[in-house]
Amino acid sequence: MSKLLFFVALSILTLPLISSSTSTSSNQEVDAETWGCQDSFASTSSSTSARSDQEEVDAVIKTLLCQGGFTIWAKLLEISKTKLVLPVNATMFVPTDAAIMDLRYATEMNPSLIPYHITPKHHLLLSDLYHLKPLTLLPTLVPWKTILITSTSLSNYKIDNAIITQTDIYVSSRLVVHGINHILDLNPQRSSMPPLLRSGNVLGARISPAPAPASA
């Protein structure tokens, strides 16, 4: 039942997005004006002052709406932010609107969707990501579930089936946000991977430590 209600809510949220390109552009302009993007976008992501979880999520929501192309995820964060507990250091991978609206992923719309897209204890800027090796596993907020780095190519950096298309969308002292072109699969198919990596189970697998800061 919870999955059904979640998917219904998502369907309602996506209705305003299924319109002409002119209407979408107009809506984005309204969102940008409402959130004051032009005036305070830079300060939103660069502020290092301490924030509560909800204040941090609000800042991410604002940045995603100002960025454009991540409206659905922003709205999902809005309806779930009171229950979302962010780690002190974390990285969030955000699917585009197009990725979420792809009906092939409808069965994956469940309460674990957002937690599975957050890697705790890893504040991974683009420069940090390039220090990680292929087949490195990253933890998520879903117990025993991981994300697999499948490619570290400069032009095609991939985590499981998703390409990181926009980097460092939001950066604060505790959170980094990157955009991806697919929803991450909670039950990834890794048949070609070594046995410990196939199920996405963290037990016995190699988990990346927090990377060393890049030298100046």
TrEMBL record:
Cited PROSITE patterns: FAS1 (PS50213)
SMART domains xref list: FAS1
InterPro entries associated with the record: FAS1_dom_sf, FAS1_domain, Fasciclin-like_AGP
Signal peptide: 1-20
Limits of the FAS1 domain: 57-184
Swiss-Prot/TrEMBL keywords: Signal
Top-rank lineage group of the source organism: Eukaryota
Entry annotated with the keyword Cytoplasm: no
Stated family: Belongs to the fasciclin-like AGP family.
Cited PANTHER family: FASCICLIN-LIKE ARABINOGALACTAN FAMILY PROTEIN, OS02G0491300 PROTEIN-RELATED
Protein's recorded name: FAS1 domain-containing protein
UniProt source species: Heracleum sosnowskyi
